[in-house]
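ugh ok fine here u go
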Amino acid sequence: MKQHISLSITASGALLALLLSSCSLDRTPQNSITAENAFRTEKELNTTTMSIQYGVFNMFDTSYAMDVAGDLTDELTSGEDAKNWSPAAIDGDWKKLYTTIFEANLLLENIHRTEELSEDRVNFHRGQALFAKGLAYLMLVQRFGDAIITTSTDNHQPYPVSPAMSVIDEAIKAGEEAFAILPPFQELRLYGSSRPTTKQFASKGAAALLAHAYSWKGSIIDLYGYQGDSKAAYQKAVEYASQIIDGKTGSYALYDTPQELSDALSNSEGANIESIFVIGFDKHRYDYAASPNKSSEYVSWPLNETAIPSDISFKTPSRIYLSTIQKMYPDESDGRRSAYFHDLSDPANTVDGVTYARMNKYHTAIYIPNEFSEFGKDFNTIDANLDLWRLGGIILLRAENYAKLGNEAAAVKDLNRIRERAGAALYPAAQDTKGVQYAVFKERERELIYECSYRYYDIIRNGLDYIHGELQGVFNTLTLQDIKDGALVLPIPPDARGEGNRNTLLIQKTYWARFGK
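structure:
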């Protein structure tokens, strides 16, 4: 993966431009400008910090196959092959993840060059880089399993892949360093002492990254039989989740009702008390800016005012049946039924004999003026950030880890906290026939629907029975050996192993090599 760095000085300060391809992991300077004079002032340093932020923003559009495979959909306009995990439809791309890691390492290696930087400013910039690096490695191990761990940005040699356990430990190491030095979000100050307007900046809420990383570590130990103590990992996940839930990492709170939550999620510029870390949507950046939240794919009439009810079958890429939602939310008293969906009893939900549930969790639409349209406008996107982590999800993640540790009383307490907020029947309810761990899994499904495509990773974390029972297509017949051979993760990207590639150390995963990947 050859990384090209261009450093140039403009009248306004340092400008960093990074171009990355996934051929071999080495670096080639493009001119004589060096790091020594690109990090002299905080203004110049901040250019790299903002570039890391941009990298984090872009990391979330590269997991299409896993998103589609895990998302709850009954009909897709396209992507059915990916949902069934058909080998021909599965490809991976790790360029953007390694771009972010490279830039984070670049900052960490050179921040000592910045003059007159106070300790708190060092901690801010280092914390952003460490968090981004930890998040990128977590995403690498979730998507690719075994992956490359880079060292110095001056290392020009090709890298082999490292075992998944080493990759998750790298994520944890960076995350713990970030957690140790970052303040709560309310105390963050950007360059120039301004306060961040979006929770895309890392804070002490990085505990959420560690809760997820330790959850993943324990789960892959159990699933793959890796050497390690899964119970110790689950306990660490509980501890970091508790830091957030107990208010030790900043001020986060549950909304009183699902409708209040839905209203907050539908306003990208609002102060969402439940959000911990988001990929922010700047709707003012340009006229056709699109939300990073992929729930636009579920939008239909009446949220889309330029559509008619019957448009759903050809204008809405991802569709869910009413029967699916009724099964998911068996309690009519569950406030998420009305907060997350358009009126489920509306006769207009039935189109050509099929009755759909229409997404309304994000209920503020953004339009583009169009004088040639009969409506005078075209639907563009939804006014929503991509909430990577919020308090409700962390409470349920802790419940999952409590269940795996055998502490069912604590798991039920967390589970019922979310059910009580929703107005749903408390555990044990009529639908709770498969134990606490499965009840927590289904509650995350109900609570986090349309948010950040969690479901694939939730399924993998819960083990083989969930993989066979909650996914479809090829997943239903995978053996444990298939899984150990790499079937649940993406193949090494083709351009990382292509003809003429300098990195000859990369060997395709056994499962994907069977299909010529």
